[in-house]
């Protein structure tokens, strides 16, 4: 009887944690306070839920694995800011002097653009509206805005005009964003047009680095995918579990914490 009560109590606590995570509360200390247990107990619970595939661990917390939902740019900008800043700082160190660089759309890539604005001279091509506007104010950065149809949520461009522009460009290094990363499926996006742009960019780049915080790994499944090539690398935070890192490694893709 005592064992049954203990099991039920644990299950109820797990459900409470999932409910809190769905509401946007993801800090370990806050979760511990809300469910009335220690932080170490919450960490063990989160590890259990992760092992069951119900959540994904993130930089300093966790999120629920749900059906795919493309966040708006504004919504994404409020999430995992510390992880994105750390990833951006590390990514900037990979940019050679006077390089030609591609910076993707998305909030992690925008964080990189903020860092690159103080570097130079550089040539930066981007499909992100916010990144182009930010870099246009940087005196040492030559900015190329890739044309195309604007995606309403990500504020990135894609489509036939993007293909025309990218066919005339080449890059020393390309930094790609992602909605989801999976070792077998690759890099997930909401539309085929966006995955195609990423493939075009990768084919014209000497080096490809994907910028993605740990919440993007093994997350909900979007409709379109780009295969991760063996020579690509992924720059992330320290929230990716070793088994996932190893799975990408078997595909020849290195996952590196910032």
Automatic annotation (TrEMBL):
Keyword check for Transcription: yes
PROSITE patterns hit by this protein: HTH_DEOR_1 (PS00894), HTH_DEOR_2 (PS51000)
SUPFAM superfamilies from the UniProt entry: NagB/RpiA/CoA transferase-like, Winged helix' DNA-binding domain
Listed InterPro entries: Carb_Metab_HTH_regulators, DeoR-like_C, DeoR_HTH, NagB/RpiA_transferase-like, Tscrpt_reg_HTH_DeoR_CS, WH-like_DNA-bd_sf, WH_DNA-bd_sf
GO MF terms, alphabetically ordered: DNA binding; DNA-binding transcription factor activity
Domain HTH deoR-type, first and last residues per copy: 9-64
Protein name: DeoR family transcriptional regulator
Annotated keywords: DNA-binding, Transcription, Transcription regulation
């Amino acid at each position: 009887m005592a064992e049954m009560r203990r099991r039920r109590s644990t299950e109820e606590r797990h459900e409470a944690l999932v409910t809190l995570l769905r509401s946007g509360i993801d800090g370990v200390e806050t979760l511990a306070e809300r469910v009335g247990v220690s932080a170490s107990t919450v960490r063990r619970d989160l590890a259990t839920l992760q092992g069951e595939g119900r959540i994904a661990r993130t930089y300093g917390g966790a999120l629920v694995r749900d059906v795919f939902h493309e966040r708006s740019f504004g919504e994404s900008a409020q999430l995992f800011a510390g992880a994105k800043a750390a990833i951006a700082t590390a990514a900037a160190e990979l940019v050679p002097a006077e390089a030609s660089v591609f910076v993707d759309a998305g909030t992690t890539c925008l964080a990189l653009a903020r860092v690159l604005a103080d570097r130079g001279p550089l040539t930066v091509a981007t499909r992100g509206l916010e990144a182009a506007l930010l870099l246009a104010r940087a005196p040492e950065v030559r900015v190329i805005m890739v044309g195309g149809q604007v995606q309403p949520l990500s504020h990135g461009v894609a489509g036939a005009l993007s293909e025309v522009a990218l066919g005339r460009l080449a890059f020393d290094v390309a930094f790609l964003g992602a909605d989801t990363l999976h070792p077998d499926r690759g890099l997930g996006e909401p539309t085929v047009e966006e995955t195609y742009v990423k493939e075009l960019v990768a084919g014209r780049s000497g080096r490809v680095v994907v910028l993605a915080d740990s919440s993007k790994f093994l997350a909900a499944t979007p409709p379109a995918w780009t295969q991760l090539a063996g020579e690509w690398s992924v720059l992330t935070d320290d929230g990716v579990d070793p088994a996932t890192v190893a799975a990408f490694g078997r595909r020849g893709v290195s996952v590196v914490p910032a």
